[in-house]
């Protein structure tokens, strides 16, 4: 459904009429407060702004042509402040593409790069031409298209799921279905992902986090290594923040760009699945001093980017430039962008790549109370939208547990990833951090109040994860001691070296049954711990059936079998999929894992850590075995909700005791990742095994117990 303003300007006759003529086109001053290009009933409104530019021209192109068929200079009367706006009458949006040229001073040492020869993409463009075919960029310049939005959202309400109730599934739109084994008709597209919704429902996830789907240039830095063409596959090099990636659509959508994506989002919502977008506001595809000038550099380079005193680019992103996020003009653009995707695409949340950059001042220094973060946290339209920070950047700022405005923002919990990876493979001295992490990372996040004065537990700030796009898959985490990025062409120097992985006795692929048996147990351990940790779990698409990247932990450039999901593994590792499915269901069934409940009738504390003897709540720093208990009274079910998760990273059997339920019931074994020898690793309700006395934890295993009354 369009906003009122959109319907008004695009469908209602306006009391506007031509007041002059430029290059043969009837024109008039436009709507200065409406950024971008907006279709009207009798023309198109074009609005753009530049602080340092002295003149601006609108260029009109026929589709897929490099030379404009019309150039329309903006008269001074069509400028208010720094904003140029013009309505051009009689245009059919299907007949043209557009861009701008901006004139002004050239003084690189002051960051001024105005050059009237540069053809510039509208920063507020809703669609970018020349990007339709994946891997092909036919035009040396970017042109924009005018988009008419007629998508009908109906009466679909905004999702109100709490963050801690989500199970987030991170995926790459192309890589998810482009492999021929995916079995979908529209491989590698939004439509292909839509065909997999029944699978997502069967798995049980209720949120997808889409890696970048804003328009990006995958051909940027394209090269050939060992006969394989390498592309910017991941998409962390934004070309346009308001435009969806047209190469992710199954059909051409001329002037209706976004329709297939909106259809996908509506279908996901109809199936109870939220949509979170991975957004990259820390840098753009324009790069450093050697990069291209196709948009922001040409409008106001010294405003949009952080510049050193000599006019070069600060590089806190590791990608050549850094957006100047706390400049008021850039703040406005980011806010308007997020509002646009929230209103027009009904997105449920945003994950901010290298989000610590959003808290840097214009000189690159960290800010105590960054205005951008404060603005996003308090914006009325974004009130119910999830805001998730990757709370670090490539400039050395690491803010996990201390990201500004954390009462509103959640964080990718890097401490959770590192401590659990270490502990699960048997590293000493990580038990305390691991126990804290499973318990909700209260040492990092504590408690806070929201703006309405309500109390929220700090675990709502923690996005718990062991794997993501950046690093090993879960299968590779237990198949490789070292990264194997040779195919990336950097002599294996790229990618993280601190992986805390373990190959279980053989590097890479093996037929050794004992090694394979151990690897899959370690994967089950990781899954069980992740889905029984307080906070919000997230895992990488394909982990649930043992997908591999063959040891590559930085597959940003691999548009091939290294990155694509191999769906034949789903059948091969069906038991692993079923384990993930059960653990997701178990988490959903036990509210006490996700949040603090009223006190349990049985008298157990709401949350505790335990030594091998459950009565001992002190854990040695170098412990190999410990447990975490969650207890509370579930009012909806009218009974106590009791969960006890025991983790043994030791390579021998360990005997543990369970908490005394004071004759109010028994503990039942729900999960044993070691298995019963018959290939059974979990026990649905009604099939659980009642435990009396001690329980023997098998080597390197996780056991989950459910407390039930007599």
From TrEMBL:
Residues 170-587 form the Glycosyl hydrolase family 13 catalytic domain. Coiled coil: none annotated. GO terms for molecular function: hydrolase activity, acting on glycosyl bonds. Its EC number is 3.2.1.-. InterPro entries: GH, GH13_cat_dom, Glyco_hydro_13_N, Glyco_hydro_b, Ig-like_fold, Ig_E-set. It is an enzyme of class 3 (hydrolase). It comes from the Bacteria. Keywords: Glycosidase, Hydrolase. Belongs to the glycosyl hydrolase 13 family. PANTHER family: GLYCOGEN DEBRANCHING ENZYME. This is Glycogen operon protein. It comes from Blautia caecimuris.
């Amino acid at each position: 459904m369009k906003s009122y303003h959109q319907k008004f300007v695009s469908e209602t006759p306006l009391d506007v009429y031509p007041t002059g003529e430029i290059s043969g086109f009837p024109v008039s001053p436009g709507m200065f407060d409406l950024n971008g290009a907006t279709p009207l009933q009798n023309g198109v409104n074009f609005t753009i702004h530049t602080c340092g530019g002295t003149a601006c021209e609108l260029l009109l192109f026929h589709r897929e042509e490099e030379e404009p068929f019309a150039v329309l200079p903006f008269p001074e009367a069509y400028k208010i402040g720094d904003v140029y706006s013009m309505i051009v009458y009689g245009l059919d949006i299907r007949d043209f593409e557009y861009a701008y040229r901006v004139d002004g001073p050239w003084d690189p040492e002051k960051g001024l790069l105005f050059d009237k020869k540069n053809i510039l993409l509208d920063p507020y463009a809703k669609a970018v031409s020349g990007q339709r075919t994946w891997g092909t960029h036919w035009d040396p310049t970017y042109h924009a298209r005018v988009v008419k939005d007629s998508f009908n959202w109906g009466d679909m309400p905004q999702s109100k799921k709490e963050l801690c109730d989500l199970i987030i599934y991170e995926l790459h739109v192309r890589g998810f279905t482009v492999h021929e084994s995916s079995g979908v008709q529209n491989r590698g597209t939004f439509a292909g992902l839509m065909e997999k919704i029944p699978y997502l429902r069967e798995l049980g996830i209720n949120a997808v986090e889409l890696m970048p789907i804003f328009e990006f240039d995958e051909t940027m830095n394209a090269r050939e290594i060992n006969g394989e063409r390498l592309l910017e596959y991941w998409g962390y090099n934004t070309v346009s923040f308001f435009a969806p990636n047209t190469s992710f659509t199954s059909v051409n959508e001329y002037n209706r760009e976004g329709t297939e994506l909106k259809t996908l989002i509506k279908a996901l919502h109809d199936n109870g699945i939220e949509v979170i977008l991975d957004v990259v506001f820390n840098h753009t595809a324009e790069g450093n001093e050697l990069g291209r000038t196709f948009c922001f550099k040409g409008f106001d380079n010294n405003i949009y980017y952080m510049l050193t005193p000599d006019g070069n680019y600060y590089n806190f992103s590791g990608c050549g430039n850094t957006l100047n996020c706390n400049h008021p003009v850039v703040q406005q653009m980011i806010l308007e962008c997020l509002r646009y995707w929230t209103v027009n695409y009904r997105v449920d949340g945003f994950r901010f790549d290298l989000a610590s950059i959003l808290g840097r001042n214009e000189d690159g220094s960290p800010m105590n109370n960054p205005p951008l973060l404060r603005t996003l946290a308090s914006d009325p339209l974004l009130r119910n939208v999830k805001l998730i920070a990757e709370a670090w950047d490539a400039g050395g700022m690491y803010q996990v547990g201390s990201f500004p405005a954390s009462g509103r923002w959640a964080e990718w919990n890097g401490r959770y990833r590192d401590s659990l990876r270490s502990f699960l493979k048997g590293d000493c001295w990580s038990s305390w951090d691991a126990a804290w992490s499973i318990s909700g990372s209260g040492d990092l996040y504590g408690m806070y109040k929201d703006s309405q004065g309500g109390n929220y537990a700090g675990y709502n700030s923690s996005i718990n994860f062991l794997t993501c796009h950046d690093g090993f898959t879960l299968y590779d985490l237990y198949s490789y001691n070292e990264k194997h990025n040779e195919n990336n062409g950097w002599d294996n120097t790229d990618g993280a070296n601190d992986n805390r992985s373990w190959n279980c006795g053989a590097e890479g692929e093996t037929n050794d049954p004992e090694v394979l048996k151990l690897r899959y147990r370690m994967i089950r351990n990781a899954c069980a711990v992740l889905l029984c940790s307080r906070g919000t779990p997230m895992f990488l698409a394909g982990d649930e059936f043992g997908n591999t990247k063959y040891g590559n932990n930085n597959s940003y450039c691999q548009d091939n079998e290294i990155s694509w999901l191999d769906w034949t593994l789903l059948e091969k590792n069906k038991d692993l999929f079923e384990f993930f499915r059960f653990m997701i269901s178990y988490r959903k069934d036990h509210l006490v894992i996700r949040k603090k409940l009223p006190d349990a009738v049985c008298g157990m504390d709401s949350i505790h850590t335990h030594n091998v003897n459950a009565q001992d709540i002190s854990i040695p720093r170098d412990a190999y075995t410990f447990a975490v208990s969650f207890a509370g009274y579930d009012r909806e079910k009218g009974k106590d909700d009791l969960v006890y998760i025991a983790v043994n990273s030791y390579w021998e059997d360990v005997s543990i005791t369970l908490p005394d339920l004071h004759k109010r019931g028994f503990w039942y074994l729900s999960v044993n990742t070691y298995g019963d020898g018959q290939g059974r690793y979990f026990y649905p309700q009604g099939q659980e095994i009642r435990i009396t006395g001690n329980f023997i934890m098998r080597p390197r295993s996780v056991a989950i117990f459910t407390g039930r009354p007599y």
